[in-house]
Amino acid sequence: xxxxxxxxxxxxxxxxxxxxxxxxxPAADLAPAADRYEMVRLAVAGHPGFAVSDVELSRPGPSYxxxxxxxxxxxxxxxxxxxGSETFLDLLAWxxxxxVAALARLVVVPRAxxxxxxxxxxxxxxxxxxxxxxxxxxxxxxxxxPRRALIVRATSLPISGSDLRRRFREGRSVAYRMPPEAAAxxxxxxxxxxxxx
Length: 197
Description:
single chain, alpha/beta, Rossmann fold, 4-stranded parallel sheet, two-stranded parallel sheet, 8 helices, 6 strands, about 10% strand, globular
């Protein structure tokens, strides 16, 4: 999916930013931040358009996207924030959603099997309250009009982090669900195993 977004929007690179302390996820469900960073690094290694940043691991406290975007924007690059459609619909629960939308162009990728409707009242409310003018534009084929939120209909698979963690706990295969190098790292480190008591 990231490769298709990179190509469709003509981006210089896609930067993956693992959260140190995700404010909306229970810490007990997650591997240590350094391990998650390493798995992402292994997963994107070798792709010339992909990079991983430790910006959130270097900062204390919860990992708020608005703070990360402000840090990245200081370099002067135009930023695009790629979100799954379900995450986009939760944007108003984030810290400073208007500032998030001001710091980066919102790029929404509808998830496989998702009934995301850009014209829906829920999607339009997010845009309105986040201060995005002009609605959505479909950028799947490289047309990127100014100011509007973008939709890229990229290939996505119905894979979730919670499913992957459950598969690790149950000792099941994650083949073809995540890069083999990242899976091998998680297994070698004993990440996501069921707690023994």
